[in-house]
Recover the amino acids of this structure.
């Protein structure tokens, strides 16, 4: 099975020998993929700690949090955070998670490592751009984190940075001077990196597929990364100029997002002619497709992994890829559903509502196809398989609440409440992260040549699965009760009875977060001590499993694999094995 | 392991749905003329999506249960009819749900946001700023004074930037920190922001509307019950966002007239 059917490579790479070119400024997509993964791990750790701090503050506002006072004496005198510091942490949590985790981990990290291998290429189409896109992302990360260390701390305007709060500068409040500048510069840099990455993914997918690897034979994960790169190319191309305009408003005295007659800190602001809604339109024209940039790769990863453990083909492969493309297309027509009550013309609410509801059709199709794949399967309950099942469950839970928020008539009550927080955490964050977990346990043997502990993996799964439901399901109830999000304390009379629910959520968040250390430990321990992995430990079909674990520098040892079939051939009856590798010629059966 | 997953996912789904069904945490009493339609739409959506939610989770659990513990030589089964019935079901079920929700919901939305305020509505001007709401009544002359942003001065209580020295209409404007309205009287608000984005949210009215700097945004409602209700800001507006609130006081017409007179005489 591992006798790769192949052609000689047309040109050979020579692996670099120096430490710097091998591990730091490497052109190898596999190293770059690992670098993205490491960066996402650092960001997710920071983002998770921020969420703990916020949750503790919300549940027990007067509690001094150990070490926090030392980290920021201004933001948290004696360990008790100020309202503005809460908003700073909130901004940084959202920004780190959306950009540096949910965009980086399922898309940039796994995509970089596995897209070229899954299509039988030696590397990305533009290895230098690839290296540049990682290091540009890294620079964006450093600039973002630097905002913790400037005098008035990170910005307090949220990850959405609505103007004019984000545009007028220090008169609007703490964190809105240098902190907000760093935010806007960091995101602009991130956009450049993402554009480079997206171009690279598209060119690689279209140009570097090996012999026999037609588009229809590409694994679902590759399809997802491909569709996602097209979305990213258009989305970040809008956010980049938006950030540049924001920076100009802030430092060059322009008024793209600031109208006339604003009085802040008793000062009439020297601006006129701008539109705050313009920022919202530009931001959400990026922001909503960003949701699909976060979730589509995980859908692809799950669709790629589930059949491996179900030992049967994915149900409706064409319907699945068709649904991905439909979502990519529709993702550009729905941004206004974030703005139903924003003050834009209320007539347009219906225009944005309909495609938002329509997008649930391809999403439902994909969900049903995944569920239908579980039907009659011979499931091997490994950790990645469990995370695939968990993904389906949380994706249903997150998708369902979309029906509410897509309707302007309900958004009038639910907008800006915890119902929204519950919705996007389930559908975008938790579902996407479950895809990343499934991918991590599944591909770790290929990336590092060692197996992860399945026992620890299962503990990690069960605690996380129960935990996320305890954290995010009650947020729906809070939203129904009208609990407004982005409040650093609940001083309104009607919010007082809801505080016990917040305490429950905080305890659940701390425990669920704690369970992630099982994962971190498993990664670190297995990297050095895990059992040696075979080339194809899961008996999977796609090309990454036809090479060694880990793959050689040029992926296939100086040869190009030849592909004879799709990636979905499981549960076969005609041969001794119940699956056929993409490289196994038809006459071998 | 499949059976364990099936049990866990079933328990999660049932417990989650039960809290929705029992209204353990729920919307407060509705006090507006447009609110009942919103609540009705919410209930319809809850039922429709509740069925989809439970069906999805329980099917997933059932299939996971059925796919576990099988001997390794047992053959797998394809979903009956393949992908086509699922695709058709998704398009039909979700399509019908979308069609129904949109058809009804657009009318609900239209009644709040597209229909103009009734003739003879009580006109009230609302100014939002970091971190307070101010309400302005036109006074006995029925006219609002013009607004001059350069004259805004919180220190002297000139929250709207009025110029009573030169503007006759501004002299009798009543500016207060609470929104006081008579019951069953249509009210037309005009929302302005002094500085950054804010939002007007009264849960009991089932309305929410952002203030956008540079824009005058109309919003109307009719309160059907007397009482005191919280108005809170839902658009992140800075460090005091959590504490930006005011009260809506709905009074009997007699009490309202008395209150207004008292304000005008100050």
């Amino acid at each position: 099975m591992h006798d790769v059917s192949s052609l000689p490579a047309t040109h050979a790479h020579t692996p670099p020998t120096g430490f710097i070119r091998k591990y730091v400024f490497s052109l190898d997509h596999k190293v770059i993929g690992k670098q993205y993964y490491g960066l996402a791990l650092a960001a997710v750790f920071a983002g998770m700690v921020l969420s703990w701090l916020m949750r503790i503050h919300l549940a027990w506002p007067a509690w001094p949090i150990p070490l926090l006072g030392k980290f920021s004496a201004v933001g948290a005198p004696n360990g008790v955070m100020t309202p503005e510091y809460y908003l700073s942490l909130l901004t940084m949590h959202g920004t780190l998670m959306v950009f540096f985790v949910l965009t980086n981990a399922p898309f940039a990290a796994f995509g970089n490592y596995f897209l070229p291998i899954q299509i039988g290429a030696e590397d990305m189409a533009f290895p230098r751009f690839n290296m540049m896109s990682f290091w540009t992302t890294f620079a964006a990360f450093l600039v973002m984190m630097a905002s913790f260390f400037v005098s008035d701390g990170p910005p307090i305007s949220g990850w959405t940075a609505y103007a004019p709060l984000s545009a007028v500068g220090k008169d609007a409040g703490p964190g809105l001077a240098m902190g907000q500048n760093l935010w806007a510069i960091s995101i602009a840099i991130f956009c450049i990196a993402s554009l480079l990455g997206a171009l690279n993914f598209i060119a690689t997918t279209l140009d570097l597929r090996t012999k026999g690897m037609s588009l229809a034979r590409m694994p679902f994960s590759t399809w997802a990364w491909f569709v996602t790169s097209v979305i990213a190319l258009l989305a970040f191309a809008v956010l980049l100029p938006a950030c540049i305009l924001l920076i100009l408003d802030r430092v060059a005295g322009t008024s793209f997002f600031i109208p006339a007659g604003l009085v802040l800190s008793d000062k009439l602001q020297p601006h006129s002619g701008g539109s705050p809604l313009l920022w919202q339109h530009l931001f959400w024209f990026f922001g909503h497709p960003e949701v699909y940039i976060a979730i589509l790769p995980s859908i692809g990863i799950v669709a790629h992994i589930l059949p491996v453990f179900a030992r049967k083909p994915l149900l409706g492969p064409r319907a699945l890829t068709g649904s991905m493309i439909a979502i990519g297309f529709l993702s550009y027509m729905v941004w206004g559903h974030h703005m139903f009550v924003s003050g834009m013309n209320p007539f347009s609410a219906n225009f944005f509502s309909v495609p938002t509801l329509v997008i649930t059709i391809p999403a439902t199709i994909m969900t049903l196809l995944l569920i239908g794949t579980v039907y009659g399967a011979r499931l091997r309950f490994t950790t990645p398989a469990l995370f695939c099942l968990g993904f389906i469950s949380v994706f249903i839970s997150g998708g369902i609440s979309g029906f509410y928020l897509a309707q302007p008539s309900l958004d009038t009550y639910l907008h800006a409440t915890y119902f929204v927080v519950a919705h996007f955490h389930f559908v975008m964050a938790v579902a996407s992260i479950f895809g990343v977990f499934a991918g991590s346990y599944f591909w770790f043997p290929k990336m590092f040549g060692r197996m992860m502990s399945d026992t620890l993996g299962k503990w990690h799964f069960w605690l996380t699965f129960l935990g996320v439901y305890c954290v995010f399901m009650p947020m729906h109830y809070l939203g129904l009760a009208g609990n407004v999000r982005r409040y650093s304390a609940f001083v309104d009379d009607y919010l007082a009875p809801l505080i016990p629910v917040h305490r429950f959520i905080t305890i659940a968040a701390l425990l669920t977060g704690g369970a992630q250390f099982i994962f971190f430990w498993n990664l670190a321990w297995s990297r050095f001590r895990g059992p040696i992995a075979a080339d194809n430990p899961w008996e999977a079909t796609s090309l990454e499993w036809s090479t060694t674990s880990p793959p050689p520098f040029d992926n296939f040892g100086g040869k190009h694999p030849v592909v004879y079939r799709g990636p979905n051939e499981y549960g076969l009856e005609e041969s001794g094995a119940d699956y056929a590798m993409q490289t196994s010629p038809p006459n071998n059966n | 392991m499949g059976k364990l997953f099936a049990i866990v996912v079933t328990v999660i789904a049932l417990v989650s749905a039960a809290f929705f069904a029992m209204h353990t945490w729920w919307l407060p009493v509705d006090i507006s003329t447009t609110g009942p339609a919103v609540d009705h739409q919410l209930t319809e959506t809850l039922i429709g999506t509740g069925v989809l939610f439970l069906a999805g989770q329980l099917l997933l659990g059932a299939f996971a249960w059925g796919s576990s513990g099988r001997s390794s030589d047992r053959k797998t089964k394809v979903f009956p009819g393949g992908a086509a019935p699922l695709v058709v079901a998704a398009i039909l079920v979700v399509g019908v749900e979308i069609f129904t929700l949109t058809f009804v919901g657009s009318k609900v939305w239209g009644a709040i946001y597209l229909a103009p305020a009734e003739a003879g509505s009580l006109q009230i001007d609302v100014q939002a700023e970091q971190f307070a709401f101010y309400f302005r009544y036109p006074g006995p002359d029925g006219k609002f004074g013009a607004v001059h942003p350069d004259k805004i001065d919180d220190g002297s209580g000139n929250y709207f930037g009025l110029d009573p020295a030169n503007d006759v209409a501004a002299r009798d404007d009543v500016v207060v920190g609470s929104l006081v309205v008579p019951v069953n009287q249509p009210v037309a608000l005009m929302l302005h922001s002094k500085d950054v984005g804010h939002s007007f949210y009264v849960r009991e009215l089932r309305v929410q509307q952002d203030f956008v700097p540079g824009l005058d945004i109309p919003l109307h409602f009719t309160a059907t019950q007397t009482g005191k209700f919280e108005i809170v800001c839902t658009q992140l507006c800075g460090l005091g966002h959590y504490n930006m609130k005011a009260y809506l006081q709905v009074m009997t017409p007699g009490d309202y007239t008395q209150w207004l007179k008292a304000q005008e005489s100050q």
User: Anything to note?
Assistant: Chain B has two domains: 2-68+83-114, 122-264. The mean pLDDT of chain B is 94.
